[in-house]
Specification:
- By secondary structure, this protein is α+β, with helices and mostly antiparallel strands.
- The chain folds into 2 domains: 209 residues, T-fold; 85 residues, ApbE-like superfamily (T-fold).
- The protein is 36% helix and 26% strand.
- Strand 4 and strand 5 form a beta hairpin.
- Helix 3 runs antiparallel to helix 8, helix 8 runs antiparallel to helix 9 and helix 9 packs antiparallel against helix 10.
- Bound molecules: adenosine monophosphate and magnesium ion.
- The site of magnesium ion has 6 residues, from strand 10 and helix 9.
Length: 334
Amino acid sequence: MDGFPRRWLPAVWFSGSMLPFLMFFCAVAGAEWHYRDATVMGTLVQLQVWHEDPSVANAGIEAVLADMRRIDAGMSTYRDDSELSRINAAAARQPIPISDELGGLIARAMEFSRLTDGAFDVTYASVGYLYDYREGVRPDHAALEDALQGVDYRHVALDPERGTIAYRQEGVRVDLGGIAKGYAVERGAEILRSRGIEHAQISAGGDTRLVGDRRGRPWLVGVRDPRDRARIVAQLPLMDEAISTSGDYERYFEADGVRYHHIIDPGSGESASGVRSVSIIGPDATLTDALSTGVFVLGAERGVELVNSLPGVEAVIVDGDGNLRFSSGLEQQH
Ligand code: AMP
Ligand code: MG
């Protein structure tokens, strides 16, 4: 072996036994990105998963979609037979038993209500249900005032010891439309990781969770122009983080020069005005989902102030004039 360059040694070892070499080669050749689009929770779910074994990637994708369907079956208010719909129908009369998972998510939602001073409020729905964005229907003043009585997260009483939930008055409805998709993609990330998947992107509507990086590079996530679908106003390199966007362009109609859209200011019962979109970046998609909705209601000034007070959380806001606003951690970078 005298004079034999050391760097040749592994090749020599492989040629001594071709079997491990072939196995290694096949594994790398099969390794690739796996993509899947599906409609779950009434929204477009998109998955991108990398694993060297395609069967692991595909089984991971199936497990995430199955979990999202399970969450939808329990938490959707579009289904009369969901656990949440059954609670909404009865909890104003007496305390109703609630599963740990649903109770836990409602408790979490109420923390975001306190944090945003009631801008994010899971009881927005008594008013929210009076709008039909597809049909262009909105409530008159009297109906709005009446429904507003039921809007206040403090009407919801969770009792973790007894495992029950009760509403303190009639007309209260809990709806998790502003937080459940984030929760579902966050769980999706946990499911993939538990199966040994280290690079993935999971999104459901405006909520995206990134697992790891994009194989040695950060993921690039674009923030779209709220008035031009084809244009990106900011691009963020992200790894192992969540990003949620709430926009006034997702579900809306216009009447008398006013844009009526799906994010409701719980104070007035009307669509929140002042910003066009809010993107929140943070460590967990449940948080970014709730905060994107809450900060949208708070508006640019108060929203940026709140985000700046939260470690590890950043915001990109397109304000009412179409100008970009950044939280302090991003301001230095752009
Ligand atoms: P997002 O697209 O995440 O901002 O969520 C918007 C959805 O959140 C709406 O379609 C409603 O289901 C729900 N929502 C609207 N306004 C509020 C609010 N003020 N607080 C909590 N959820 C809300
Ligand atoms: Mg949200």
